[in-house]
């Protein structure tokens, strides 16, 4: 999934992959999201401090997103 810092300074989830702003990709698992936020990787990638409620907001979107990957591991099967 792509997380974007918009030109207005808001941090949002970019479901289309085309939103304007500085973006960072995070895998669609709760563990990966936890590590990206707690270790500061997401903050460094977006070059801005993250709001305190961001983890809760993004974790809520993980449960609503379709995480099925089609095409197999290499995308060709």
List the keywords.
77 residues; alpha+beta; three-stranded antiparallel β-sheet; 16% strand; globular
Topology:
Blueprint: E1 2-5, E2 11-14, E3 22-25, H1 30-38, H2 41-46, H3 54-64
Write up this protein:
The chain has 77 residues and is α+β, with helices and mostly antiparallel strands. The protein has a single domain (2-64), classed as Hypothetical Cytosolic Protein, Chain: A (2-Layer Sandwich), CATH 3.30.1230. 34% of the residues lie in helices and 16% in strands. It has three helices and three strands; from the N terminus they run βββααα. The chain has helices spanning 30-38, 41-46, 54-64; strands at 2-5, 11-14, 22-25. It has a three-stranded antiparallel β-sheet. Helix 1 (30-38) runs antiparallel to helix 3 (54-64). The radius of gyration is 13 Å and the shape is globular. The two termini are 22 Å apart.
Brief characterization of the structure:
The protein is an alpha+beta fold.
**Rg estimate, integer Å:** 13 Å
Describe the oligomeric state of these chains in a short phrase. single chain
Reported for the largest beta sheet, the result is: 3 strands, antiparallel
Low-confidence regions: none
CATH class type:
Alpha Beta
Helix content: 25-40%
């Amino acid at each position: 999934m792509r997380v974007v810092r918009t030109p207005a300074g808001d941090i949002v989830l970019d479901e289309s992959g085309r939103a304007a702003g500085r973006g960072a990709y995070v895998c669609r698992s709760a563990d990966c999201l936890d590590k990206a936020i707690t270790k500061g990787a997401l903050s460094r990638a977006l070059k801005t401090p993250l709001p305190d409620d961001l983890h809760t907001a993004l974790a809520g979107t993980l449960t609503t997103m379709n995480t099925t990957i089609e095409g197999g591991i290499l995308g060709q099967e």
